[in-house]
Amino acid sequence: MSQPNTVVPRPRDPRIDAFRGLALIMIFIDHVPGNPFEYFTIRNIGFSDAAEAFFVMSGVAAGLAYSGRFLPQNIARNGIWYGVAPIWHRAWVLYLVQIFLTVWAIAIYSGGALFFDIPALITQINLRQVYENTQAALIGIPALTHQLGYVNILPAYMVLLAVTPFAIMLGLRQPWLLAAASVLMWFSAGLWRLNLPNFPNPGGWFFNPLAWQLVFTCGLLIGLSLGRKERFVPRSRLLFGLCLGFLLLVFAWRHVPGVGSFLNHQMARLGAAGVPFHLVSHDKTFLALPRLLHCLALVYVLSCSAWVFRATASGGGAPLRLLGRNGLLVFASGTLLALVFNVILAGAGGAMPYPVVLPPMGIFMMLAVAWIFEAVSSKKPRTAYAAAP
């Protein structure tokens, strides 16, 4: 009888866990608005933010973790379900976490409204429908069509995981066909404003899976190539220079007086001339082109820099790797902490020292949760990291 465990674990790339951990920290900081630390997150140096980083790293991790199960010899030996089952099980776990976080978000903001006597809290983060249109909201929450603020990234991720088995099977055979199909879907979603329904509110999902699948697919293709110890996009001095130059241009666009207003005006002129809005805007729902290009340029520059591997593999990168290894647990913990801290800040009126003290406290608590989880998981083997890129 053949043995089902035919995928040999490979050493983990420290960059994946470290950058995923860094993205989780930035998401947490950005979800506690009004604190001074948010000026140091990625969204303040460019167009993209930690959400794009989260989707890219999730795609890379999925490509590395699951691609071996879809190799022809493994499918022939164990069947297709051997590859599909763990991915769909992960999507189901994400669904349960999403419902858990949503229920607690309602409880936290409702408790804050009572404790601090701030009725306005139950009108924030898209809670109004829960109280004013409860019957419809109670349908929308489990159906994932009604999503609360700060608790709306996992639904898109689980939709993408649901189709990941098919993407991996295509990507292993025809990676550039998968890339072309992904770009076509992204472009079509923006051109015709395609999105999933947002019942009972009008409009669609804030993280539109039809658009955000592109950045996830880019990560997936990177992960599939890393599984073969290759690069999806080869190193090129010319491409590195173009990406670095674009990152510098975007930084000037954001921070040099006059540059941003001039370039935004040119984009507005292109939009008025009929260029599709998602090519000449900074829209997040449809993953507008400037955001996408900034994210991909940053990924390429970092992936080509040897110092990045050394830094993430060093002792100083250990806390980030710890967070990244336990991404879902850390994300859920950080989301709950951010919701609690937002209520506390509302009750304190944003008075000092809360905006300065709460974010570092939250990061420390996220680290503690990840450390305790690994400490009590006695059956979990010690993570082995690669010694070279």
Summarize the structure.
With 389 residues, the protein is mainly α. It is 66% helix and 0% strand.
Descriptive account of the structure:
The chain crosses the membrane at residues 53-71, 92-116, 148-169, 176-194, 206-226, 238-256, 288-308, 328-348, 354-373. Helix content is 66%, strand content 0%. The protein is mainly alpha-helical. It has one domain (14-376). Helix 4 runs parallel beside helix 15 and helix 10 (237-255) packs across helix 12. The longest helix has 35 residues, at 81-115. The relative contact order is 0.16. The model has no long low-confidence stretch (mean pLDDT 93).
Cα(first) to Cα(last) distance is: 37 Å
Number of helices: 16
Mean pLDDT across all residues, rounded?
93
**Integer-rounded radius of gyration:** 21 Å
Order of helices and strands: HHHHHHHHHHHHHHHH
Strand count, sense and barrel status of the largest sheet are: none
Our estimate of the beta-strand percent is under 5%
Protein name: OpgC domain-containing protein
Keywords: Membrane, Transmembrane, Transmembrane helix
InterPro entries: UCP028704_OpgC
Transmembrane segments: 53-71, 92-116, 148-169, 176-194, 206-226, 238-256, 288-308, 328-348, 354-373
